Amino acid sequence: MVAPRWVWRGEAEEATQTLAAALADAGVRPPALLARLLWNRGLREGASALAFLRPTLAHGLRSPLLLKDMDVAARRLADALANGERVAVYGDYDVDGVTGAAQMVLFLRELGADPLMHVSNRFREGYGLHAGAIRALADAGARVLVTADCGTANVDELALAGSLGLDVIVCDHHHAPTTRPPALAVLNPLRADCEFPFKGLSGAGVVFYLLMGLRMELRARGHTALPDLRRYLDLVALGTVADVVPLREENRVLVAHGLRALDGTSRPGLQAIKEAAVVERASVRSIGFRIAPRLNAGGRLADAQRAVDVLVTSDAEQARALAAELECCNAERRAIEEAMVAEAVRLVGDRSGRSIVVANDGWHQGVVGIVAARLAERFHRPALVIALDGVIGRGSGRSVRGVDLHGAVSECRAHLETFGGHRQAVGFSLRRECVDALEASFEDAIVRTVRPADTEPLLALDAEVTLSSLTPALAEALVALEPHGPGNPEPVFLARDVRVVSARSVGDPSRPHLRLRLSHDGRTVPAIAFGRGNQAVAVGDRLDIAFTPRLSRWQGVDRLEIEVVDLRECTAPAESAQLSENVQELQIP
Known about the structure:
Strand order of the largest sheet: 3-2-4-5-6
Number of helices: 21
CATH topology of the largest domain: inorganic pyrophosphatase (n-terminal core)
Mean pLDDT: 92
CATH architecture of the largest domain: Alpha-Beta Complex
Structural class: alpha/beta
């Protein structure tokens, strides 16, 4: 792992005083520290800060009609329901796509329809719309086709659908072409002519907005017994968190309420998956590390259809069986991933370039995206990983801070058969003989367009505190900032000259954690540093630590502990002063 440079996030304390006063007047405690944290996240006015701390469905979601083509899409679906026309739903194979497809299927069923459903097969069809699947849906009687998390870039397939008599409603959030795709409606906040102010919706979020628009249209036509959209927020939260989109504005509202819905979900499939994943309380972390990998596993190794099936079934026995299948797929995925990561690290070796491109025969194309993410994290370079099979290679890429991966890969399009994605992740295919040319072209694109300083790993610190100032009440107050994720990072605090009272390695020997007790300013607290069990830390060492405080429950009692994000030897006074002088505002990713 590349050690990050520590920098301050945000402004000096004086800049937040007015905001702190507004929070105090509204009863927010502790106002000064929360004001600093909110200011660091770009929330500078009292009204916006309070709306952030208290997200509501009534005031936090803009009108669906702001999405271009929403009126057309809602009217067409309402007409189809009124006329008994068959609607088909076409979802992508990742969590964002399957949760979007599940929403649409369940909503239409609640309205009395019997929708057809198709989920992209990663191996037979690849990402996006497939001509054969479109023909099959048209032959089965579909007259309206709704996509979930795909379709924007499928110009030829959309034209085919139109020629077969299908009215297509695209729900997507990937980069939109400059010319409008040939569909009846294209719901995508990234369209140049779309006036929806927030551009960070997930595919599942766009589908949810279509449900909002359809519900408005049906109500305007006199329908009264309509589905309760709040019951769909568990699926929206899953897709939004899994797709790693910014947890700001609409996404913050949807996920905050969606996590509560996930905790109380009545869906047998989600209950079974939560049980298998040992998830007692829904959180961004439990979705990202426990639930989403299981939903993704089917599409990575076999067929994503079972992921949609487990979400839409009302049969508890079937739900448990499907969850068990996904559990097996996830265990197999982990084993394949570890072997591929080890081989990919060997192939990277001591390469000194500013990007990574690795390819190999026999790699599983369903796992290349995870491996790319692991390489990007380990080497802090944008990484492309390619699974070769005969004359064709299928690859996936993941980015790092400061790199627009979609932009960089688009400069290499001459060497690719297909590609698509966004700033942080891309998927592509190419011919075997083009791998070396892609590697050279990708490195050139990164060198020409990205400054080395823009990709330097940074750890942003919010404020300096003493461990004696930490209390369970403070940790509880910080919960108001959740859910955390891109665009709303967890608070990270700095404590200097902390003494190690005890240190031991715990957990899986292949990637152990470091369990500590730390003393500072007359206070001793328990701490955990995940993945650092092999780090040389001894009793009596004096450290500077970057950490996040947490509440953990033990035998019915809440206790404070800290999660150490990074640590280093205690800095000399001159170095401490330099860190303080280098206060700078970081752009929230």
